[in-house]
Amino acid sequence: MNKVVQVENLSLSLNGREILKDINFEVLQGEIFTIVGGSGSGKTSITKCIVGLWKPTEGKVEVFGKDINTLSIKELDSLRKDIGYVFQGSALFDSLKVWENVGFYYLERTNMSQKEIRQLALEKLRLVGLDEDVLELYPSELSGGMKKRVGIARAIATDPKLIIYDEPTSGLDPITSRMIDDLILSLRDKMGTTSIVVSHDLISAFSISDRIMVLKDGRTVQIGSPQDILSSEIPFVKEFLRSGFTHRINL
């Protein structure tokens, strides 16, 4: 199976502080790979290195077989078109309507007509369970779950091969969180996308993931299938699971 992301010996220091240390993992085509760990463990820092926002102090990050650190700005910009990013707080533009948020890339980068972009936005919104009733609404008129789905619709607007979800269930009630989990799985099945999920929500992580990476203080503790992690004998992993689960799960 093809490797979509390959991370080798990744280390990152910012302002003299070590954020990541010797991180190694790969993400395979069609896989849902979830990164879990406590606050400040380096989860989001890894995704910033993957999309080229931060340059590693050491190591290499390859996406679609290309070394991120060797790409020109133009090449990196082209690569990012194949990467959808769902931000933790949805990060919608308050002054833009829903269809403009979803079609923002095309409004800014292409000569497509507003009618064409509006239609494209509607197609993506339908993939996330919304319809034309929301097209003309502003973010302030949406519920938290709807904002999250609009953020996902924007992320898939360019038909990316890789989607990165940063805390996709953060701030949502349990029922809405499970709806987002179902949506992540559905998009993988419908679009054939590869997914990297950063999450503090262990119920979500163990519901959707093919493999999970557990981080502690910027270092990898364990990588494995959900069952591998659940049956882990590593003390930190056992304690992390005990403290992290808020609902009963058969450990």
TrEMBL record:
One Pfam family linked to the record: ABC_tran
GO molecular function, one term: ATP hydrolysis activity
Family matches, as Gene3D superfamilies: P-loop containing nucleotide triphosphate hydrolases (3.40.50.300)
Assigned keywords, A-Z: ATP-binding, Nucleotide-binding, Transport
The keyword Thylakoid is annotated on this UniProt entry: no
Superkingdom of origin organism: Bacteria
ABC transporter domain mapped to chain residues: 5-242
The protein's name: Phospholipid/cholesterol/gamma-HCH transport system ATP-binding protein
InterPro entries for the chain: AAA+_ATPase, ABC_transporter-like_ATP-bd, ABC_transporter-like_CS, P-loop_NTPase
CDD domains from the UniProt entry: ABC_Org_Solvent_Resistant (cd03261)
